[in-house]
Amino acid sequence: MFAPIYTITNKTLRNIGITDAAREVIDNAPLIPAWEAKFRKEAIERTVHHGTHIEGNKLSLEEAKDILEGGEVVARERDVQEVINLRNSLKFISQLASQELPGESSLITVETIFKLHKLTVDKILAEDSSGKFRIRQVVVKNAQTGQITYTPPPAAEVPYLMEDLINWINSAEGKEIHPIIKAGIVHYELARIHPFVDGNGRVARAVATLVMFLDGYDIRRFFSLEEYFDNDPMNYYLTLQSVSNQLVLDHHERDLTPWLDYFVEGVAIELNRIKEVVRRISFDTRVKDKLGEQLTLNERQMILMEFLHRHKNMQNKDFRKMFPDYSDDTVLRELRFLAKKGLIRKIGGTKKAQYILK
């Protein structure tokens, strides 16, 4: 039976506290539907971009956004397909966590992981390797030097190792562990087993996200751990390897503590960042009290309000930088709407006007 070895350090304990406090704020923030939709859309965009970029995808964040919105981008076909595939796997995770897929279990099964792999490598990997455990030995190499940095377990062991892991995820012991710790363990173990010919990193991160969602830790689906990993990919891979390359007689003796310290810190950083943004723009309760109704803002109005919450005031030169593709009249019309609704106030004349929160 799979039994991970790790220690809850003071660092991890502190970051769990930060995460739980941030989760409380985010889950209970009175956000208008338009803001909630905006945050979820941005989380998907960041996850898709950074989740593929860390694996060598050359597309920029803006190019990834264009693809997600159905636009055409001149790029390597594989790069475009990876973005589409990761978007589809995220949709599957959300549907599974929301129980929107008839006949699907709320437990993580080998079929769930096969499905995620199929979605991840669609039109990239040969059909006979898609959604199937590898049947040959693979190695992990340094992309620049070609040096072998990690040798996963033999292919013959993969089905048994995966069965052990899945049983542990769904066991009473697994359900008692904090969702973030559990997600970190699952991420590491999938990366260590390397069950597929290709797509292992993306599947490991996807299953870790699913673990958090199924254990009630979806945080309104506003977060993206992939951005944290991609900000320093060398540290991400070296931390994984530092555990995998421990000199122990049996893989069950590996100490996951360094990886969990790193993983939990990433969750804390990401959720704390989101908490601060949510706090700045959770103004709709005050608006509802004032107007007697909930106010729905359009995209430009939301951007203007977020800027004012962050910078306290705004001048004409600011919104020209924010909206280079729109005329001054268009932006001024949005500002007049916000002023009419009692959200902002104009100070000074037209040319030297400043706008502040009311």
Automatic annotation (TrEMBL):
Pfam families: Fic. The active site is at H194. Residues 108-265 form the Fido domain. One of its GO terms (molecular function) is ATP binding. ATP binds at D198, G199, N200, G201, R202, V203, A204, R205. InterPro entries: Fido, Fido-like_dom_sf, Fido_containing, WH_DNA-bd_sf. PROSITE patterns: FIDO. It comes from the Bacteria. The record marks E55 as: Important for autoinhibition of adenylyltransferase activity. Keywords: ATP-binding, Nucleotide-binding. Signal peptide: none annotated. PANTHER family: FIDO DOMAIN-CONTAINING PROTEIN, FIDO DOMAIN-CONTAINING PROTEIN DDB_G0283145. This is Fido domain-containing protein. It comes from Candidatus Daviesbacteria bacterium RIFCSPLOWO2_01_FULL_40_24.
